[in-house]
Amino acid sequence: MEIDCQPEDSIVTSFDEDCVELGDVKDMRLEAEAVVNDVLFAVAEMFVSQSLSSASDVAYINVETREGNRYCLELTEAGLRVVGYAFDQVDEDLSTQYHETVYSLLDTLSPGYREAFGNALLQRLERLKQNGQ
């Protein structure tokens, strides 16, 4: 999940959200906010946990799927994984798979997310088609 940002990359784009760093360490709290903003449209509720302590190398995200299931997600350099089945809950005995992206993780957890994401893509394609004619 680590992304290298070369100086020449800044010439191509003015801001690369994947390169939010403090010194040599990514700030996972900022990464978590970006994750939330990216998929909020396709879930019932999603926010960065305020009660679980985040650090520069770990952040926790609470998500409620469209089906009403609640999860606590851990975001680290390794990726995202479910660490609890309620908001702000971390079960140390839970051993779940890491996902490289929030899209992959939500795709496995929520058919409603999958449908909302697909519908958003179709709407965007329709708008592009209309603007092109």
From TrEMBL:
Organism encoding this protein: Myripristis murdjan (pinecone soldierfish)
Official protein name in the record: Gsk3b interacting protein
PANTHER family xref list: GSK3B-INTERACTING PROTEIN (PTHR12490)
GO cellular component, one term: cytoplasm
Gene3D superfamilies documented for this protein: Hypothetical protein (hspc210)
Superkingdom: Eukaryota
GO molecular function annotations of the record: kinase regulator activity; protein kinase A binding
Pfam families per the UniProt record, alphabetical: GSKIP_dom (PF05303)
InterPro entries on file: GSKIP, GSKIP_dom, GSKIP_dom_sf
A Gene Ontology BP annotation from the UniProt entry: regulation of canonical Wnt signaling pathway
GSKIP domain ranges (all copies): 28-128
Source lineage: Eukaryota, Metazoa, Chordata, Craniata, Vertebrata
Family: Belongs to the GSKIP family.
